[in-house]
């Protein structure tokens, strides 16, 4: 399973937070989290469901990370250390 992790500075306490997500489709995330609207316009965008602390979902295009709020996408200004990986899940 494809994963992505990144660090951002949380607005509520100004501390760094590490978020990790598993790749999903935008359609899946819209249904799962009752979201509306289009995905990002870049065809290379990848969408992730967060596991653990962080936003419910996020998207990544190259070295930019986006969050979805009020039916719109916003770019994290503080995102850094973006790492793509895979997670093995035993059968």
Which features does this protein show?
91 residues; mainly beta; seven-stranded antiparallel beta sheet; 1 helix; 7 strands
List the helices and strands and how they pair.
Elements: E1 2-9, E2 16-24, H1 26-32, E3 46-50, E4 57-61, E5 64-69, E6 72-75, E7 80-86
Antiparallel strand pairs: 1-2, 1-7, 2-3, 3-4, 4-5, 5-6
Walk me through this protein's architecture.
This protein is mainly β and 91 residues long. The protein has 1 helix and 7 strands. The protein has one helix at residues 26-32; strands at 2-9, 16-24, 46-50, 57-61, 64-69, 72-75, 80-86. Strands 6-5-4-3-2-1-7 form a 7-stranded antiparallel β-sheet. The longest helix has 7 residues, at 26-32. The chain is globular. 18% of the residues are buried. The mean pLDDT is 94.
Summing up helix and strand content along with how strands pair, one would put the structural category as mainly beta
3D shape: globular
- Helix count, per DSSP? 1
Task: Determine the fraction of residues in helical runs and give it as a percent range.
Answer: under 10%
- Radius of gyration based on Cα positions: 13 Å
Quote the distance from N terminus to C terminus.
Answer: 12 Å
- List low-confidence stretches: none
Q: Strand share of the residues? A: over 45%
Quote the average pLDDT. Answer: 94
Number of strands: 7
Main β sheet profile: 7 strands, antiparallel
- Strand adjacency order, main sheet: 6-5-4-3-2-1-7
Helix-strand pattern, N to C?
A: EEHEEEEE
């Amino acid at each position: 399973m494809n994963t992505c992790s990144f660090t951002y500075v949380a607005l509520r306490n100004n501390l760094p937070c590490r978020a990790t997500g598993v790749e999903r489709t935008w359609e899946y995330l819209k249904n799962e989290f009752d979201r509306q609207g289009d995905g990002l316009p870049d065809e290379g965008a990848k969408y992730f469901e967060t596991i653990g602390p962080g936003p419910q979902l996020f998207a990544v295009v190259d070295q930019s990370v986006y969050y979805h709020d009020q039916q719109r996408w916003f770019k994290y200004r503080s995102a850094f250390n973006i790492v793509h990986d895979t997670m093995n899940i035993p059968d």
